[in-house]
């Protein structure tokens, strides 16, 4: 069975993104148009503003970026390292550089633009504004990329148990489903925009995680090498020669015995006069 790690590897994600982009450029364009609709305006017009301002905003920069920064700076202060902040900066740079760059280059018109053909290179920010660069979906990419980076930091630094890991996975799934479903229900994107957005966010997130883990392994290897060099350079104390098996151990030198003092020695006897012999 193919593992989740292999399914989300960088070559697989890039291949899927290229395939979806190719299909959205021509073969799926009519399919996109047949599935699209302004469902909220048709079915629940009174809820359109609420859906746009609350559920749709969860995957927007106004909400997801503060969440990522809060997680990054909290972990950086707790563990006394700038690594979480650097990962957050790389995540935001990747969003604007890759997702924003694809939006500008591909220039696909939104269903709300004057040109509803959905063709690539037919829109543009100058002519249609935000409605001229709809592929890939920014909200779908942010749901995967921004919240995924926050979850990755929590897993690396907090080292949660399997139960909390599952909860993080479910939270990521619900946020992504919310972003895709609400954007589709409001009619802001073609269906292929949303799929392309999720894949683009996953590609950028995979690059960030792989690079961070490679740097961590490199730092660990360099630290181990420094430790080995320190051990080799340290002077080694001479070891005593081993005693042969069965050899008698050298006897300790006998302690000096103090001389015996005869009884009465040192006591002066009373001098007596000699007796007179007749």
TrEMBL record:
InterPro entries: PAP2/HPO (IPR000326), PAP2/HPO_sf (IPR036938). The keyword Disulfide bond does not apply. Keywords: Membrane, Transmembrane, Transmembrane helix. Residues 232-278 are annotated as: Disordered. It holds the Pfam family PAP2. Residues 266-278 have a biased composition (Basic and acidic residues). This is Phosphoesterase, PA-phosphatase related. It comes from the Bacteria. Residues 85-209 form the Phosphatidic acid phosphatase type 2/haloperoxidase domain. The chain crosses the membrane at residues 57-77, 84-106, 139-157, 169-188, 194-211.
